[in-house]
Structure formats: structure tokens, C-alpha cells
Amino acid sequence: MTDEVKTASGPNRRTVLEVGFSGAVLVAAGLPLAAAGPAAAAGRPAAGSWHRYVQGPSGRTVRPVRIVRSDGDVTRPEALLTPGGQVTVLRRAQPPTAPRWPEGTTVEASSTHAGNNGNDGRPRTYAAGNAVDGDLSTFWNDDTEHDFPDSLTLTTPEEQELSGLTVVSSTDGVPTAFTVAVWADSAWRTVATVTGNSAVQRAVRFDTPVSTTRVRVTVTAAQDLGRGVFTRINEVWPEAMDPVVAPSVTLDFGKVVVGYPKVDFAWASDNHPGVRLAFSETLQYLTDRSDFTRDDQAGGAGQGTDQYAVPAGGASWTDKKGYGSDGDKVYADGLHGFRYLKITLDALPSDAPAAQSWGTVAVDAVSLDFTAYVGTPDSYRGWFLCSDEELNRYWYGASYTNELVVDTFRKDDVDPRNAFSASLDGKLVLHDGAKRDRDPYVGDLAVSGRTLYLTHDEVAVAARNVLADLAEHQRDDGWIPPASINNYTLPLFDYPLWWVTCSWDYLLYTGDRDYAVRYYPQLVKVLDTWYPSVTDDAGLLNKGLNGTSGYGDYAFLGRTGRVTYYNANYVQALSDAARIAAHLGRAGDAQRWQERAKKVAQAINTHLWDESAGAYLDSATGPVRHAQDGNAIAITSGVADSERAAAALAHLDKTTKRRYGNAFMDNDTLFGGASQRVYAFTSYPELVARFETGLADSAIDQIKRTYGWMDSHDPGITQWEGIGPDGSLYEDAYTSMAHGWSTGVLPALTHQLLGAKPTSPGYATWDVRPHPGSVTWAQGELPTPKGPLGVEWTRKDTTFTLTVRAPRGTLGSVALPMDGHRVTVHSGGRALWKNGRATASGVRPEAGYVTVSGLGQGTHRFTLARES
User: Fold this and answer.
1) Are 177 and 195 in contact (CB under 8 A)?
2) Which of 205, 226, 399, 843 could form an SS bridge with 164, CB 3.0 to 4.6 Å?
3) Which letter, b or e, does each residue of 413-439 get, where b requires 16 or more Cβ atoms within 10 Å of its Cβ?
4) What residues of the chain score a pLDDT lower than 70?
């Protein structure tokens, strides 16, 4: 027997490999994996069958797929779906002049918000008199947020006969419930009650006309659109005037997309009619305002929509950030992530005369200039397919979600909270979400980076750019910022640990040694300077030390003291840093960090294990609770032994299982509703823990509850930042519905269910260890710097077959699951394992598997069968 690998080439270019198990011959035919392996014999799909799951567009121009609805005077709305033919026409009559209260009318309010610079940066007031000044751009704003009732009282110089009135409010949140009372016979008499209001302009008619000198509007509830729950009234008119319906068309792009919207206008009336565009990832939050605009976040002038004044001759308009040709009116926000687009013939009152709210507009076509990575079957360098249709959908949904956040860092598109960085400008990065933050966070990269490496590794530079930029902004004390947001000063406690782990991941998948060498000093500084400064006498990270009590974490949670999640992450980071050090020949650093990791793990087990619950405490400080993040990472980082791992997962099963996933806390002592909130970000390590502790079916069940919920609810396909009580959007309209940190289902299915992963930088070594559960077959490829690593297995009756195609210059091992049975293992017609013992070198039992090591390039086929 020999461990030497010999190759020979024949005229048909077949490669014969002689590997060290008693001369067993493994043949690599050079064929596509599905054709060469047992998949073809089993009648399963050929490799190309995965193409049908790919969700990316075919090119940069993306068009809507259907009309959701149209309102008002709209002709041929369906023409928007077929450019170059008929046009869609929106018409709106000029509204009548609004009535005014007589000169000398005075107004008093229950309270008034102090003046400030407003959304447009210009000084403004919110006085009660704004409600009768005839200017729709000014408004009264009360000063008791979330506190009702609020009242506005109008007094006229002489008696008025009123048959009704009109309340015009702000799109920032209309009064949903209010009463109208008049002063009569020395007392207030209610003449109208309004409930369930959602109209910005609400006509209120009285049962009978009244004569009075005083009118009071009392508001008892208002919408919460994320702009503060106040009463805001722009105008009260002394007549009931129904609004002239603004014509609109709502378009559906079929899934979340991201980029610059484009509208081709054929022609328009000559009065500069305006259009307003509102965007949303879900129909639930599609209103006259977008579900999110960066301009709103920055205190700008957008008023929740993007505006454009249409010239009479028409125009092809791309929605880019900035003002129209007048220079200070008609503002557009630019890039958007959305599924639904509502186009309305309307204009902001403050945009007159540059844009008018009435006229005629003809639209030929609507499209999107898609800016993110375009993932097509030809661009995929890694793929996955298995016997479970749902899992296939979720894998490619994760890939598409991640493609949406692989984009160029551009000043006009990033988070408005001081997140622009010249050092990243124009570079490809992994953002954290398609629509909202548009900023690269290193915690998100811990998941989205792996998803990228397994699908489109040719753009792994997107991850490197982020990691390198954050390292170059390291603070003098060793702390590494989580993102460019707040000019690299956002204080998060855990994210420097994720930078270490993400750096190891990048090296592991790409083999980029130059990166590891270049940023090794930052690695040393964060682990040997900053984290020791927040370590207590037990050797545990202790949030609160060294001025860190106000630091946040991935969810800005109010956790303090010894927190299992931080410390388990610390163990993982120290272990990953040791691997980097060993790869670079820094044996002393590797040994020191490994020893520290062991001490921290021991301290976690000593101080943070709750024997009564059979789980790790979330924190040793405050009320008793147990978190998904700390317990899962304690398992995946090796802190927990098998007994503790089984107990912790059983505790999570008992306390956090929801129909839409597993909650990240087992009770509500941290904040209300914590036990109902699901983060796919923290669910990912739990999935890995379940697969790798022999609970594959439990992991698959969790996947189907979590990702099945997101896949089957609007907007579909893409994966959400977080799920709230009863499966809701956990932060309402603000929730990102296409978030890279939620794509952990993809690496979990590839690395754990299919079972293939790298074990040293650049896939120099690899391991294939399937965790099938109820899945009967799986196949796929992992992109490596040396070529694809192909894997396929099938489980039928008492037989498990596994085929691996390894690229040149790599060495790996495979593990075939015994499932507690006596088995035989054959390869190339020769037995490798029989009668409970190895019959070839490089073969051994290991934790319920038969492991075969020393596999070089070529195709390796194995058959495991139960012994009768």
C-alpha cells in the first residue's frame, strides 16, 4: 500500500488514480458530475436542472410583470408592460380654489411643537395658525407625541354658517380618529365623528348646517408611519370638499429589485404636471409614501416620494438623486430597492409652479436600471440541487437575496447617516440590505460572505474591499469599526470579533494570502489590545468594562456584563485567528490564541451554564433568559461538549419554536416581544449546530418554518432582516426584506446537508460529510481557486452512494453516515470497510461515520450498504 498518487492519461483522456487503499482504482471520466455519478442512474435531474431556480434578471434592464391596480382617470394602464406600443395616459382636472376663513380668524391649539429647520433644512414653525394660512406646505404639529387627545380651536370674528369642513393633513401620518364640535348655546356640541380615516384630504359633512363662531377639531388617534406619532393638520377649510382623485398606476416587478427606476414619458400637457413615485417591498406598506427613502432619513425635502415635472414634449427620465432643473424644487431620491412601484399624477404644494398636481401625462414604459450583481446560470460558479423542492427554492432565493446586495458603493446611494467614505467610493462591496442601509456591515458579511463564496466567488473582492477598509479604519486602541456608518464610529461590541472570523473565511475560501499578511497587524491588535481591555478577572469578555456600557451589538440589544454570545464569538474568533497565524507561520501567536480560546471556553462553562435549564444564560447579569445566539455559537465554536449541546438545543426546541422559525430569546425579559422575534442571522448557527449534532431533520424543519414563511409571504423569494410576532415584519415598513445576513440557509445546505466544505485556505484541503436527514439525494458544486469541487450522494433503502470530483492540487476526505448500523463500504469494486473494521489504509470510524482520507484530484465513488 502507498499514499503516493499516480496519474496516467490514455487516448480518451481518462485519468486513473491509485490511492492508498490496497490498490483500489478510482476513475475520473472528465464528465459533468450528474452524468458521471449515480444521479444519472437513479433517474434524477441532470446538473443543468438547477438553472430553473435562478432568480436573477437576464440583464440590466428590468421591467414590471403586472399591473396591481389603477385609480382615477387612467387609460390603458396595461400598456406600461409593453413598451413601444400604446401609451398609458393619466388625467387630472385642475382642483377648485380652496375656501378661506374670514379675515380675523384666530386659532388656538392644545400644544405646539417647537420650531426647527424642518425636512428641507430651512427654518419653519408648527404654529396653530398654519392650519388656516392657505398654504398647504405649512402645518400645525402638536407637542405631545403618542399622547392624545390634541385639539385645534378656530374662532371667527362673526358667526359662520357651516354645512361641513375639510381637514387636510400631512402624509407623515394623518389623523385616523377625530371629532368636530361647534360652540352653540354656551356649550360645545359634537357635530361629526370620524374613525378609520386614512385620507390626507378628508371632507366632513354635518347632518344639518350650523351657525357658530367657534369650531374645535379634537384628534384622538393618528397614523404611525415612522415619522413620529403627532397630530399634523395642514389646513382646515370651511367647506366639505372631496379631493380630486389623483390618478395612479401600481406596478409589480415580481420580486424585490434594486437600482434606478426609469420612466419614458411620451408627452404631457403644457402646465408642467408632476408625477410622484412611491416604492415598497410589500403591498402592505405601499401607500402614497415609499416604505423607505434615504432622503426622509437625512431630513431632506422628498416627503416620502420621488418627484418629477414632466415636460410637454415628453422625456426619458432616470430617477437619480437630486433636484430638478429649477435647482431647489422637485426632488428625487434616486436608487431604490422595491417590488412595487406606484406612479401618481400629483405634485407637492411646495413644488409649484415648477410642478403642478394636475394635467395630463402619457407614459410609454417603466423599467429599472438594475445596479446589483446579475446572477444568471452562466455566472454561477457553485450550485446546489436536492430531492426537496422547497430547499432548492430557498437556496436560490438566498443567492438572489445576496446578489441584490453585491453592488458598487456610491455616495448618493448609501445610508444617509454619515456613511459615505471616499476610501470605498466606486468599489464593489457587500451591502447589508437592498433598500435601506446600503452600507457594508462586517457582521452581515459573516453570512453574506459565505453565500457569495459559494455562488459567485469571482466577485469575492466585494468582501475583501469591506474587510480591508474596516481594518484600515482601526482605532488606536485596537477596536475595528463595524461599518462606515457614523464615519466609522458606531460603537458595537461584537463586530470586531466578526471581522476576525470573516477574515478567516475570506482566506479559507479564496486562499488570498496577501490579504492575511497585509492585515495581520490589525488582527493582533484587536485580539491582544482591545478585547483584553474588556476582559474581567474570570477571563470573560464583560460588556461595560473600559467604557463599553453604551456599546451595542448586531441588534442594538441592551445586554451587559458576561454575555454568552460575546464570549462564544470570542472563542470562535480566537480559534480562527490561530488558523490564520498557523497559515502564516506565526506558531507563537497561534498557540497563545488557542490557549486563550480554551480558557474562555472553560470560563463560559463555569460561569454561564444554567444547569437547571440545560442551556447557557444569555447574560450573568439581570433576569434569567437563554438566547439562540449564545447557545448556538457555543456549540458551533466547540465550547459545548456533546451533552451540553444536546441539552441546549432541546431547550431552544421547548422555548423558542414558532411557526415562522425559532425565536432568538426564550422570554421577554430583554424587551417586549423578544420571544416572538426571529432573526435568520442568529438562526444560521443554530441550523449548523443541529445538522452537526445529528439533528438533520430538526434543522430541515427549522429551515422550512423560517425560510418557508418568508418565501410564502410578500414579497416572496427574498429573505428578511427579521420576523416579528405572528410572522409580521418586525420593524414594519422599515424592515429590509432582502438582507444578506439572512441567507445562511445557503451555506447550511451546501456545507452541512450536501456536506462539502474547505478545511484549509483556498480549498487546499476539503471535507465531504453529508447530513442527509429526510433528503434522499443531493448534488452540487463548490467553486474553488483550483476548479469546482463536485459532490453528489443518494440514499436509497439500505444503500448510500457518494461521488466526489476533486480539483487538481487538493487533498480531502469523505465521511459516509452509518446511521448506527453495521455497514460495508466499497469503492472501485473493493471493500474499504467490512465487519466493523477498515480493510484499507486511510479508512476509520468517526462519530457515526466511516471516514476515508487522502483523496486527491479526480472522481471518487463510494457505496455504503447495511450489513444484513
Assistant:
1) yes
2) 205
3) bbbbbebbbeebeebbbbbbbbbbbbb
4) 1-47, 118-122, 298-302
